[in-house]
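Annual report, structural modelling task.

Input specification for the adenosine-5'-triphosphate complex:
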Amino acid sequence: MATVFDIAMKHTEPEKDNGAPIVAVEDLRKAFGSNNVLDGINLQVARGETLAVLGRSGTGKSVLLRLIIGLETPDSGSIRIHDQDISGLAMDRMGEIRKKMGFLFQHAALYDSLTVAENVAFPLVHHRRDMSRSERGDRAMQLLAEMGMEGDVDKMPSDISGGMQKRVGLARALALEPEILLLDEPTAGLDPISSGEINDLILKLQRERKMASIVVTHDLHSAKTIANRLALLDQGKVVIEGKFEALQHSDIALVKDFLNQL
Ligand SMILES: Nc1ncnc2c1ncn2[C@@H]1O[C@H](COP(=O)(O)OP(=O)(O)OP(=O)(O)O)[C@@H](O)[C@H]1O
Ligand SMILES: [Mg+2]
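The model returned the following structure:
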């Protein structure tokens, strides 16, 4: 049986001169009541780089993304986007920064009453008033074609598969041409072929668009394939962070257990 060690790493390395990190998280803490979900997290992502955030269920991976997007506020620590701390920013300024971010929620979160094309055009309707209706439609079609979904644009979300819904979610995340891409479990619940297709799309985006990407995943195959670096969360901390080889060579029991999951 193939193991994760047989899976090829296909990601492209970011350019050397990628400069200051686009996203920098420092000593980030967030509790809900007595539940210290994030207890001093440090992470950075540069242009053209994909960081995979791994961890068991409930370790705060989705909370971390929600903090970066600004949907939750940290108790302490900082989240810097292009060297600007986003905590405490006024709503309108945060709105401007959020436009630089594309995100795919854990449960694709498409609008049930809108077609596939309308879902992808939705961020444009709200944020690109300068574009005409037909320009927005063209842009949605182009993004859906990139995702291999050109034959499904008029379908309703309930009439397409889970893998297709994720691809529509990805197209929608790209609508505003973000510099930062945040994906929460893009392959969860998918069969291996559909997961492979999503991984290939993420790799293509990494090659062509050079975004700073954070991908939250349980899927070690996916993480190894697409990510330049991996970070494993446990009990509110980053247990280890580095290239896949660094995880392979780690003596930490939890890291070994995690790699043995397959
Ligand atoms: N709004 C909230 N109010 C209270 N507790 C919350 C809230 N959001 C998250 N939590 C708690 O924070 C912890 C981390 O949740 P989170 O959704 O980030 O986990 P996760 O790592 O994404 O898990 P999974 O892999 O299952 O998606 C959980 O214990 C969860 O119950
Ligand atoms: Mg989650």
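DSSP finds nine helices and ten strands in the chain.
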